[in-house]
Design a protein that fits this description.
With about 250 residues, the protein is an all-alpha fold. The protein contains 9 helices and no strands. The protein has one domain. It starts with a helix and ends with a helix.
Length: about 250
């Protein structure tokens, strides 16, 4: 219809009609583009809100995991200290073998591989190009820093892992039953086979009172101190990001 009126206007040299029709077309296109932009912006805001909700869920998981890890590190530090005192002592201590093997188990925790934070949601957000849709520039920076620094922290911690845990499992032998260790089951076995566990305890002490093990144990203590400090920093960063994401 508009094209018909334009053709008629051109034939009749009705420039007023031509200009008016052209303006109607331009304004119509502009309004259509503007509505599309508004709709895309609305969809983008909804997507960002969903991503931030998912990140909050991830952060809660990170918080729970690193809180657990902090407690594990605390138990590990205590176990390492007690084991060092026993190994440095003379003769056979009056230590229950069952309790001693529990100390060994606690001292070897978080000594093989350091897990990473939940990154799937953030990587999806970044790879989709929607990270730029977050209007708060400071929040974008905090998100990028948290995940980048967390991955670097994991690498730094893993680079300091010693050979203590592997050496301990090898020295303890199958009699200690550290693999798949269950306290109640272990106690039942130790009651029936106290002599065997006592012998395993004595054999471990003989092997552990060599310079190599004590050096590894000291290195593991240093690693645990570093781990404890890094986990504390991680928890602080988690709480700070949780507040930023929630807008508090």
């Amino acid at each position: 219809m508009i094209l018909g009126r334009l053709a008629t206007g051109l034939k009749q040299r009705d420039w007023g009609t031509i200009v008016l029709e052209v303006l109607i077309v331009v304004v119509g296109i502009f309004i259509g583009l503007q509505v599309d932009d508004w709709n895309q912006a609305r969809i983008g805001r909804a997507d960002i809100a969903e991503y931030l909700e998912r990140i909050q869920v991830d952060l809660k998981r990170d918080e729970a995991f690193f809180t657990f890890l902090a407690n594990e590190a605390k138990n590990k530090r205590s176990a390492l200290t007690t084991i060092k005192e026993i190994v440095r002592g003379d003769g056979s201590p009056d230590e229950d073998p069952d309790n001693f093997f529990e100390l060994l188990l606690n001292s070897s925790s978080i000594g093989f591989e350091f897990p990473e934070v939940q990154t799937v949601t953030f990587l999806d957000l970044r790879s989709s190009g929607k990270l730029a849709l977050i209007e708060d520039a400071e929040l974008r920076t905090q998100l990028s820093f948290y995940y980048q620094e967390s991955l670097h922290r994991s690498d730094r911690i893993e680079s300091r892992i010693t050979g203590y845990a592997a050496a301990l499992y090898e020295m303890a032998g199958p009699e200690a039953r550290l693999v798949g260790w269950d306290k109640e089951l272990h106690h039942e076995i130790s009651s029936d086979e106290d002599v065997d566990l006592r012998a395993a305890f004595e054999n471990f002490l003989v092997a552990a009172r060599k310079e190599r093990f004590l050096s590894l144990l000291t290195a593991e203590q240093n690693y645990t101190e570093f781990l404890t400090a890094q986990v504390s920093i991680q928890l602080e960063e988690i709480k700070a990001l949780q507040q930023a994401v929630s807008g508090d």
